């Protein structure tokens, strides 16, 4: 397929979607492996699930729950889809993608509904791919729901919706209706959400056993069909949980996640990795590195510049920019973060008449910087300046975690060093903090590497 980047400002603007993860085969995809320094990331992830992509050896663990960390908007989902494609092609895994944002309420998500979404996605995919399970293999899950629905006198409306799905003989399509009814209720803020959460908690052991049996049955079928040996869930969107929901899901309810005897990957917010309260329950050492425009010593990272320039010009045709310097300025001020680059392009399209020139670029950078000015405090500027001065000593306190979450602070090389967002460095508050830091140094240090 011949792809041409949009050549009109309005077309570029309308096609920018921050939440969009590129599917396999999308012509806008740019390989960022070298630019990130993530050449070993996929191999490490595959080996955690027992498969060596090089030797093809396979020794799968009984269960493994892996967290996949990275800045929000850094491209985790897009990269994971490429990883999923490779894992699927190996014929060792049957990868089931679970879009938590599409199926559930991101602002109030707990393991109870995540479990429902995982089961629903597995059955949906098997049904779509033409696989079936015998009634006795579906019975444990159906029986759990039937008992729960029948004991809820105030859930007659939900019971009516699910009656067909709960009847024996409905097969996988019938159970898909059951799970879909629950996930819809959870997402729409139904008054029954709390009630069903309590029911799941009270009878979680029975439900977990039923779900585990369902997974084992699916794996037997997939193996008999020579399709795969293990089911592997890719749960996306869980990196966008907020505040206490993150702690509830990944820390307080970790035991419930681990009760599901399966292979699973969950996207996770970067600041959670440094929280200190995870206790080693989940496998939590895989991080998707940020794209590097500079090394820690300030040297230019050519692979990063090339990758992000290409990404930009696949979204907006080169003819829309007055000079190459305008393109470079946008890349530089993204800090190597793909979504921040998209934000800058979007702002340029809102400000420009027919073409993006240096004046438009400066306005876009100033506008994005203003978003950070709204929440940054003097102490934040001081911390960011200090980290820029000694990037290898970024600290791990609550303030640093907050800045990582808000992207005012960016992390590179799997966390070996950090640096403030380039647009933050344009703000007067940061410049004052940097000047104060340098004035207080007995031995002057070099200023932060220019963008």
Label the structural class.
Answer: alpha/beta
* Rg on CA atoms, Å: 24 Å
Distance between the termini: 36 Å
| Helix and strand run | HHHEHEHHHHHHHEHHEHEHHHHHHEEH
Whole-number tally of structural domains: 2
Spans of at least 5 consecutive residues whose pLDDT stays below 50 are: 442-451
What proportion of the residues is helical, as a percent range? 40-55%
**Strand arrangement, largest sheet?**
2-3-4-1-5
The largest β sheet comes out as: 5 strands, parallel
What is the helix tally?
A: 21
Beta strand count? 7
Mean pLDDT: 86
> Tell me, what's the shape?
globular
What does this 3D model show about the protein?
Helix 6 packs antiparallel against helix 9 and helix 7 (135-150) packs antiparallel against helix 11 (204-224). The strands form 2 sheets. This protein has a 5-stranded parallel beta sheet, sandwiched between helices. It is globular. The protein has 2 domains: 39-287, no CATH class; 291-451, no CATH class. By secondary structure, it is α/β, with parallel strands linked by helices. It has helices at residues 9-15, 33-36, 41-48, 76-89, 100-103, 111-128, 135-150, 156-166, 171-187, 193-202, 204-224, 244-252, 254-258, 270-273, 302-315, 324-334, 338-351, 358-373, 378-389, 398-405, 428-439; strands at 64-70, 93-99, 230-236, 263-269, 283-287, 409-412, 417-420.
What's the structural blueprint in terms of helices and strands?
Elements: H1 9-15, H2 33-36, H3 41-48, E1 64-70, H4 76-89, E2 93-99, H5 100-103, H6 111-128, H7 135-150, H8 156-166, H9 171-187, H10 193-202, H11 204-224, E3 230-236, H12 244-252, H13 254-258, E4 263-269, H14 270-273, E5 283-287, H15 302-315, H16 324-334, H17 338-351, H18 358-373, H19 378-389, H20 398-405, E6 409-412, E7 417-420, H21 428-439
Parallel strand pairs: 1-4, 1-5, 2-3, 3-4
Antiparallel strand pairs: 6-7
Helix pairs in contact: 1-17, 6-9, 7-8, 7-9, 7-11, 8-9, 15-16, 15-17, 16-17, 17-18, 19-21
């Amino acid at each position: 397929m011949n792809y041409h980047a949009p050549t009109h400002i309005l077309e570029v603007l309308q096609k920018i979607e921050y939440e969009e993860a590129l599917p396999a085969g999308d012509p806008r995809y740019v390989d960022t492996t070298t630019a990130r320094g993530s050449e070993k990331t996929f191999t490490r992830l595959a080996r955690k699930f027992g498969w060596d992509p090089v030797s093809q050896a396979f020794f799968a663990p009984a269960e493994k729950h892996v967290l996949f960390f990275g800045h929000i908007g850094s491209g985790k989902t897009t990269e994971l889809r490429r990883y999923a494609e490779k894992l699927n092609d190996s014929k060792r895994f049957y990868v089931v993608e679970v879009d938590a944002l599409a199926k559930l309420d991101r602002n109030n998500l707990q393991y109870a509904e995540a479990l429902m979404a995982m089961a629903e996605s597995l059955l949906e995919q098997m049904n779509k791919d033409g696989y079936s399970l015998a009634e006795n293999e579906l019975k444990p899950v159906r029986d759990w729901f039937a008992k729960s629905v029948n004991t809820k006198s105030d859930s007659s409306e939900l019971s009516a919706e699910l009656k067909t799905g709960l009847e024996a003989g409905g097969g996988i399509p019938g159970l898909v209706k059951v799970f879909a009814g629950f996930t819809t209720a959870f997402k729409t803020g139904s008054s029954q959400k709390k009630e069903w959460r309590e029911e799941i908690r009270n009878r979680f052991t029975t439900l977990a056993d039923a779900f585990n049996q369902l997974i084992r049955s699916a794996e037997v079928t997939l193996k008999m069909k020579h399709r795969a040996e293990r089911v592997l869930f890719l749960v996306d969107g869980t990196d966008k949980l907020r505040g206490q929901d993150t702690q509830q899901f990944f820390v307080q309810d970790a035991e419930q996640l681990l009760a599901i005897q399966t292979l699973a990957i969950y996207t996770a917010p970067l600041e959670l990795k440094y929280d200190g309260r995870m206790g080693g329950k989940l496998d939590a050492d895989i991080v998707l590195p940020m794209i590097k425009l500079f090394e820690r010593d300030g040297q230019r990272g050519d692979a990063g510049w090339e990758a992000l320039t290409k990404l930009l010009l696949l979204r907006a045709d080169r003819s829309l920019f007055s000079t190459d310097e305008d393109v470079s300025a946008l890349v530089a001020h993204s800090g190597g973060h793909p979504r921040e680059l998209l934000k800058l392009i979007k702002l340029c399209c809102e400000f420009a008449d027919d073409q993006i020139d240096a004046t438009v670029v400066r306005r876009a950078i100033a506008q994005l910087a203003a978003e950070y000015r709204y929440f940054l405090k003097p102490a934040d500027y001081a911390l960011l300046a200090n980290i820029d001065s000694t990037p290898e000593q970024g600290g791990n306190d609550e303030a640093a975690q907050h800045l990582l979450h808000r992207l005012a602070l960016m992390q590179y090389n799997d966390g070996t060093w950090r640096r403030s967002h380039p647009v933050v460095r344009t703000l007067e508050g940061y410049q004052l903090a940097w000047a104060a830091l340098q004035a207080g140094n007995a031995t002057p240090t070099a200023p932060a590497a220019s963008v």
